[in-house]
User: Fold this.
Amino acid sequence: MPKQLCTCGNNRKNNESCNNCSQYKMVFLLRDKQSPFKIRGTAGKEVNPAFWSFLKEDKRPRSVIIKNMVSRAKRMPQWNASNYLMIYERNGNLIEKVHIC
Ligand SMILES: [Zn+2]
Assistant:
């Protein structure tokens, strides 16, 4: 039985991502303020969509994780609706800003 990497109580599987436990977060900066890809944030405001790295990959070298996140982002419908993809560490430090268009 592999060690469960999500320890916050969300009970995410290791092949999933967790908004508390994953090491990296990516945010699409959508071009259109009225974009259908906006999501409802905690305060009820529309915010840019965010996705987290997969827990099972979190121990891999940062460069590998970032590369995998960017290629995953390119296959998502949000990619063509965005100007930038921002990648953050869990503590909020911006580590990569990918120009899309
Ligand atoms: Zn968790």
